[in-house]
Amino acid sequence: MTSSAPNNDPQSSGGIRNALIGISCILILWLSLTLSARAGESGNATPLQEEFLRWKFGLFLHFNVATFNNREWANGYEDPATFAADKLDCGQWADTAKAAGMKYAVLTVKHTGGWCLWDSRHTTHDVTEFKNYQQGKGDVVREFLDAFRGRGLKVGFYYCAPGNYDGRFGNTLPPGSPSLHGLPPEAAGDYTGFMKKQFTELLTNYGPIDFVWIDQWGNPYTRQDWPQLKAHIKSLQPRCLVVANNSHSDSQTDIHSYELPIFRGKTLSDVLPANNQHPSEVCDILGPSWFWNQSGDQSRLLPAEEVVNRLRLCNERQANYLLNVAPDMTGRLPEASVKRLREIGQLRGISLD
Fold first, then answer.
1. SS3 for 209?
2. Which contiguous run of DSSP H or E holds residue 241?
3. What CATH number did the domain enclosing 241 receive?
């Protein structure tokens, strides 16, 4: 008769124990990844998102070739010699941001004209062509980063993906010229590959970047590649937050984004849900346009009280407020804008002493 005594073989029991430990580890890893992926959906912010929300108030800086050509959307055929910021002062930008109590800033390093505010090895469509700015040897990106980091502020890049920009907001192509779709000419035929190369430059040559803000991410040319573009950014700087403008999907964006001026006829309270649980950001404009232009209404600014009220509402609803203040053709923030931001800081009780 076979004995019914329990099996006390140490090798057998050890194998079972190891198998159970392995299964437990797999379950723990799966649970961790699942909770992380669902953090936004459940209203629980990740540590990076929580840090972002502590910034509360940021400065958006639309400054590029469009500034010097009286348009919102450049097309890439502008004369680069028009970029003549003879008094460019990123220190003034940063000092003004601090006076308003802002904690971060985002610069348009490449907008619809495809012009790059740094020396990119992948195109000549960059600062090296700005012969009236430091004789083509400048680096606006570096000056921006040095000024804001030097004052303890967080830093981010705005980068515009390709799109159909022609015929809108002052963007009229020269007769017979093909559309560049918002990227330098060298990007033709491989928009996604070109963008990856430029993201690599921006995220390996300038130290830690806190924020990458992508406009037109859902365009018809590279929308299908957005997941790999976002993953590429994360592979270069895992702690860099990625914002897909106007996206409210956790799979597409780290921060839910609301571009307030496009919601015509609606108030901020209409646009940003009162019960919002997702780490979010609302971008807005202090003046009448994103880029400085030569119209006579550039001194028409939001009242300081209104800005403070919008900021307060955003913060109460789990969102930061990113306010655009456009530098003028000298490369400085206009005095009227500086005065308004100081008023905002005074209303918020900001002390720089």
1. coil
2. strand 241-244
3. 3.20.20.80
Q: Please indicate, yes or no, if residue 70 is contained in any of the structural domains.
A: yes
For residue 9, tell me if it sits in a domain: no
- Per the CB < 8 A criterion, the answer to whether 281 and 246 are in contact is no
Q: What is the pLDDT along the chain (353 residues), one digit of tens a residue?
A: 333 333 444 344 444 544 444 444 344 333 333 334 444 444 589 999 999 999 999 999 999 999 999 999 999 999 999 999 999 999 999 999 999 999 999 999 999 999 999 999 999 999 999 999 999 999 999 999 999 999 999 999 999 999 999 888 888 899 999 999 999 999 999 999 999 999 999 999 999 999 999 999 999 999 999 999 999 999 999 999 999 999 999 999 999 999 999 999 999 999 999 999 999 999 999 999 999 998 878 889 999 999 999 999 999 999 999 999 999 999 999 999 999 999 999 999 998 76
The residue assigned the tokens 């450049």 is 74
Q: Which domain holds residue 204?
A: 50-347
Q: Alpha-carbon dihedral of residues 295, 340, 272, 276, nearest 10 degrees? A: 150
Q: Give the number of other CB atoms < 10 A from CB of residue 122.
A: 16
Cβ atoms within 10 Å of 267's Cβ, excluding its own: 11
Tokens of 52: 């972002």
> Does residue 43 lie in a domain region?
no
Q: Within 13 Å and on the Cβ side, how many CA atoms surround 60?
A: 22
Q: CA-CA distance, 44 to 277, in Å (whole number)? A: 8
222/192 Cα distance (integer angstroms) = 6
61 - beta bridge partners?
Answer: 107
Q: Which residues, 6 or more positions from 234, have their beta carbon under 8 angstroms from its beta carbon?
A: 240, 242
At 237 the three-state DSSP class reads coil
For residue 320, being part of any structural domain is answered with yes
> d(Cα 126, Cα 109) in Å, to the nearest integer?
10
Output the CA–CA distances (angstroms, integers) from residue 325 to 117, 250, 298, 314, in the order listed: 18, 28, 11, 18
Rounded distance, CA 156 to CA 240, Å?
Answer: 9
Domain count, the chain: 1
- Cβ atoms of 161 and 219 within 8 Å: the answer is yes
